[in-house]
């Protein structure tokens, strides 16, 4: 026959269980937060590269116009430290139908919500968009 201990003899059991489970739980929660932010920033820089490429393929496009468009889009997502590349430079030097590439990259440490990102720390998120030049021949 099994005997049950009164509640007074199991007083610290929940504290011990919490001490064992809490670090793992918080590690998982912080990992979810970090991964979610990474996915969000990746989508924002992908969209910014696409918006920049849409400007770059038009007549009269300059690297300054493309960079301004990309940075305006990124600022709505609170991203201020991105590097923008445009190839060819200037973009309107490409002929009709030739590819124009706009790249955007940002270090994850600059956009993480955590004070010290531990999974993605030191990584760089990058996106690139390639479109064909639209111009009057």
Walk me through the topology.
Blueprint: H1 13-56, H2 63-76, E1 83-87, E2 99-107, H3 108-111, E3 124-132
Antiparallel strand pairs: 1-2, 2-3
Domain TadE-like: 12-54
Transmembrane segments: 12-33
Organism: Posidoniimonas polymericola
Radius of gyration: 25 Å
Q: Averaged pLDDT, please?
A: 88
Secondary-structure content class: alpha+beta
Percent in helix: 40-55%
Strand order of the largest sheet: 1-2-3
Overall body shape = rod-shaped
- H/E topology pattern: HHEEHE
Number of helices: 3
The rounded distance between the terminal residues' Cα atoms is: 94 Å
Unreliable residue runs: none
Number of domains: 1
Descriptors:
single chain, alpha+beta
Describe this structure in words.
With 137 residues, this protein is an alpha+beta fold. It has one domain. Helices cover 45% and strands 17% of the residues. The protein has three helices and three strands. It has helices at 13-56, 63-76, 108-111; strands spanning 83-87, 99-107, 124-132. A three-stranded antiparallel sheet has the order 1-2-3. Helix 1 (13-56) runs antiparallel to helix 2 (63-76). The radius of gyration is 25 Å and the shape is rod-shaped. The relative contact order is 0.18. The model has no long low-confidence stretch (mean pLDDT 88). Residues 12-54 form the TadE-like domain. It comes from Posidoniimonas polymericola. InterPro entries: TadE-like_dom (IPR012495). This is TadE-like protein. The chain crosses the membrane at residues 12-33.
């Amino acid at each position: 026959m099994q005997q049950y201990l009164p509640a007074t003899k199991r007083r610290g059991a929940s504290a011990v269980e919490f001490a064992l489970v809490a670090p793992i739980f918080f590690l998982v929660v912080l990992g979810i937060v970090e991964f979610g932010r990474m996915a969000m920033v990746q989508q924002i820089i992908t969209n910014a590269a696409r918006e920049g490429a849409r400007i770059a393929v038009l007549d009269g496009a300059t690297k300054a116009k493309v960079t301004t468009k990309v940075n305006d889009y990124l600022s709505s997502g609170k991203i201020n430290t991105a590097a923008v590349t445009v190839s060819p430079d200037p973009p309107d030097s490409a002929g009709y139908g030739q590819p124009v590439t706009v790249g955007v990259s940002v270090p994850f440490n600059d956009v993480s919500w955590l004070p010290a990102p531990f999974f993605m720390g030191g990584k760089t998120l990058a996106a690139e968009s390639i479109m064909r030049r639209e111009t009057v021949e």
